[in-house]
Amino acid sequence: MMKILLATQNQGKVRELQELLADEEIEVVSLRDLPDWEEVEENGETFAENAALKARAAVQRTGLIALADDSGLEVDALNGAPGVFSARFAGEPKDDERNNDKLLGLLETIPDDKRTARFRCALVIAIPEGKEYLTEGTVEGKILRERRGTDGFGYDPLFLVPELGRTLAEISLTEKNDLSHRARAFRKAIPILQRLKG
């Protein structure tokens, strides 16, 4: 069985990838399985650069095939902001409520039809031989004027998925995992992992 490292402490991401790989004879381990892991500084200018920094560090440290993702919200009226700064949009410490308040403030005068946005995820697979593979996933939506829903986290209560007529905070985890930007990037990674497994 092939073992891969998902470079995250987030057990939700690990479960998501394990479910997608359930039939593949691939074991997924995470940073929680590594003692004394030092966080990688995410100083890239894009999601792909940040994902690559994490994947490279993980493969160098462990010798395992490593996957790492970086994701966030891109708002068209803000020229793609908050982008790579999504988690810390309102400054340190990270705070979802302050981030949402800042976003609502900046978009206050923006008409409804110009509030288009997307969640984007970049996933990098790094292998010990030095090669890297990039997959990306997006989910398109609009930013509402007030929060709706109690599930999810981050910007989910403000992010309306038009074809559903609901925000990401108003849908079940199963639905979210089916359409999320991360799930879409993970699904594109499966054929690559199948090839690497040989």
UniProtKB/TrEMBL annotation:
Substrate binds at T8, Q9, N10, Q11, G12, K13, S71, F153, G154, Y155, D156, K176, H181, R182. It comes from the Bacteria. One of its GO terms (molecular function) is ribonucleoside triphosphate phosphatase activity. It catalyses: XTP + H2O = XMP + diphosphate + H(+); dITP + H2O = dIMP + diphosphate + H(+); ITP + H2O = IMP + diphosphate + H(+). The active site is at D70 (proton acceptor). InterPro entries: dITP/XTP_pyrophosphatase (IPR020922), ITPase-like_fam (IPR029001), RdgB/HAM1 (IPR002637). Keywords: Coiled coil, Hydrolase, Magnesium, Metal-binding, Nucleotide metabolism, Nucleotide-binding. Pyrophosphatase that catalyzes the hydrolysis of nucleoside triphosphates to their monophosphate derivatives, with a high preference for the non-canonical purine nucleotides XTP (xanthosine triphosphate), dITP (deoxyinosine triphosphate) and ITP. Seems to function as a house-cleaning enzyme that removes non-canonical purine nucleotides from the nucleotide pool, thus preventing their incorporation into DNA/RNA and avoiding chromosomal lesions. This is dITP/XTP pyrophosphatase. It comes from Desulfosporosinus acididurans. The gene is rdgB.
